[in-house]
Amino acid sequence: MPAQIHVFRCLEDNIGALVHDPVTGACASVDAPEERAVLAALDQTGWRLTDILVTHRHADHIQGIEPLKRRTGCRVVAPAKAAGHVPEMDLAVREGDTVQVGGLAAQVWETPGHCADHVSYWFASERVVFAADTLFTLGCGRVLEGPYADLWHSLQRLAELPDDVRVYCGHDYTLANGRFALAADGANEALKRRAAEAEAAKAEGRFLVPTTIGDEKATNPFLRAGEPALARSVNKEGALPVEVFQALREWKNRF
Ligand SMILES: [Zn+2]
Predict the structure, then answer these.
(1) What angle, 0 to 180 degrees and rounded to 10, lies between the N-to-C axes of helices 189-203 and 174-184?
(2) How far is the CA of 24 from the centre of ligand 1 (A)?
(3) pLDDT digits (tens, 9 = 90+) for 89-98
(4) Does residue 80 have a pLDDT over 90?
(5) For residue 239, how far is the Cα from the chain centroid?
(6) C-alpha span between 113 and 120 (Å, rounded)
(7) Phi and psi of 89, rounded to 5°?
(8) Which of 58, 84, 158, 206 is the most exposed place for a label (fewest CB within 10 A)?
């Protein structure tokens, strides 16, 4: 039976996600942005929390861990590189490790760039990846711990997944991302449609998560840094994609 996934908004603009294995009843919260919102999502779904899969050490992804662990006794899985920052860590994971959520298996991919300890969880059997603050709908995370090449390579790696893979991200910045994407890649028809779709979704109180690898490859300027149009937008024609990527990311920081 396929995994069931429930997403919800929390804090200012974070996106929480629960992954439930209907066979065993196991349920993981991907990160723990906020105790109250995770408990409300568990209440709404009727699922019982067994695991927290931490993607990186930033406060808005881990601050709900201690109260949730106290309340549920769940296991806390977190990147080995975040040790000392993530409370209540039960299992430290690294590149290539596999984590079980009941009968569901997630491969751990180290996806640094936003910060050095960032990992993504790839559920191959479900064709679902939780990329947190690496890849967003129409955007990507800020590079808080360089070099820029780290995030570029992490994004490239995600982009090699099949087009139909669903991507769950850690924040809903879709409207701002869409406006920047249009500034950088305004002749892209697929992007124009997507940005309009994002505006319509927002007006209805929805958000465009999950996205797919295929949609992001077609519309996300940070995955399209190798395209001539994107190089032109930052006056870097002929430059390496990673240099175009850095210029785009720096432009977005000021946008
Ligand atoms: Zn973060």
Answers:
(1) 160
(2) 31
(3) 999 999 999 9
(4) yes
(5) 28
(6) 12
(7) -70, 125
(8) 84
